[in-house]
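ARCHIVE CARD
Drawer: 12
Card no.: 0347
Subject: one protein chain, sequence and derived structure
Cross-reference: see card 0346
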Amino acid sequence: MHKLLLLGDEAIAQAALDAGMSGMYAYPGTPSTEIMEYIQASPQAAADGVHREWSSNEKTAMEAALGMSYAGKRAMVAMKHVGLNVAADAFINSAVTGVNGGLVVVAADDPSMHSSQNEQDSRFYGKFALVPVMEPRNQQEAYDMIFDAFALSEKYRLPVLFRITTRLAHSRSAVARREKTTQNILALPSNPRQFVLLPAIARKQYRALTALYEKIKTDPVLEAHNRLTVGRGRGTGIITCGIAYNYLMENIGDHADDYHILTVGAYPLDRQKVSELVGRCDRVLVLEEGYPLIEEQLRGLLDRDVSVLGRMDGTVPRDGELNPSIVAAALGMKPGEGREVPSLVKQRPPSFCKGCGHADLYAALSELMTEAGPGRVFSDIGCYTLGALPPYNMVNSCVDMGASVTMAVGAADAGLFPAVAVIGDSTFTHSGMTGLLDAVIKDSPITLIISDNSTTGMTGGQKSQATDRLESICLGLGVDPDHLKVIVPLRKNHEENKNVIRTELNHRGLSVILARRECIQTASRSKKAEAASKNKQAE
């Protein structure tokens, strides 16, 4: 079949469609967002009837994908690395229940925290859950591996964790497609108790899982993705995985024959190939994106005196993503000189878009918090977190999705007043609603401001589950209608908005303010699309 020029995310999406996937589930999060966006825009997905709507959060996405798998169909769920924390309960237990139709869980890690709160390594979740993990080196391998991931999932009746990183997700390459696979038919589990994790059942299934994990280690499909290249002499052996392989080859090029190289593309770690590599080397350099997972396991596996170099001994920096220069330094080579960063973008901090409603909200709030004394603003994950930067300097916390509400509740419990929480509409329906329920139950003296721009703005304007539902959700959770206010964050409404916020800040109980104004970017795109549609009709 013909080749397509695809992002890593897009290669995964296209592969899932070609491999007979029936349902795609996700919550937007950089760098995984484009997987779902590609499938939503795909004519092939539409023609095949693939389910492809955004979920409220990663946990609901994981559970819905497991439900489709229960019915015998192939499903994929995608999220960024911290999203796997949200889905962890369902993910870990899905290894114990097992699956029916193939289930692939894509976790997109973000080394160097380009758009994240941490740089955790999702491979540890695979090791923790006792499921196969696959990690491609490039876009073509990402495409091909998805077929193997679905096949492995159905062979062992386990979910398969598919780990990528930012550079692979957001770089582009030509990808050759395979012949399309037909979707599975509806077929319920043969064991009606398989998914019933009562302790008596769960104990038996977990025992079976641990035995199965040992069997998986020698699976020929997984072994095929772990490649050992024997070089000359006894010098340095190198273990690399994922995109780090490309950084290695950029440096050693035509001299690759001087090194013994084990490229890891699948886990559990292939002990036989590790032993063979180590037996040929005096020292081993481990190049892996993220935490030192391979390096830690390697130190436990070795039964001979071989020097192990990597993140743990400082040969490679303990934090941040790899790059060709870091790899060159680890190899004892002179790093290449990159181009100067243009002055136009050098040291340019992120900022609100011109005309952003979040900016007008913070403009009002900043004046009021100065009046209010020792109060604090607990923010959340979204564009509005930029309120931490000048000229507003208004954000005192940003921890995880939904934490603004519950941290404000806890601070209020400690006696802080005013305690203000700022959260976006999409983040609120993701994980802020339960925190609001806590606040309602004890009438916590906090002011919750939901900055409602009717979209998931930070990740590109995906659909928000909260659109046109916020009032009913808040009232349904028990918010007092007298302290549920709506403002429109515009400059012309500045004084009016301040008066509303000031009143609620002074209220010694729970207040909720909906600061409602459509995202300036999605509004612009909507207008352009509407104009284009009218022009087309006129033709």
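Annotation on reverse: The chain has three domains: 3-183+196-216, 224-330, 357-523. The mean pLDDT is 92.
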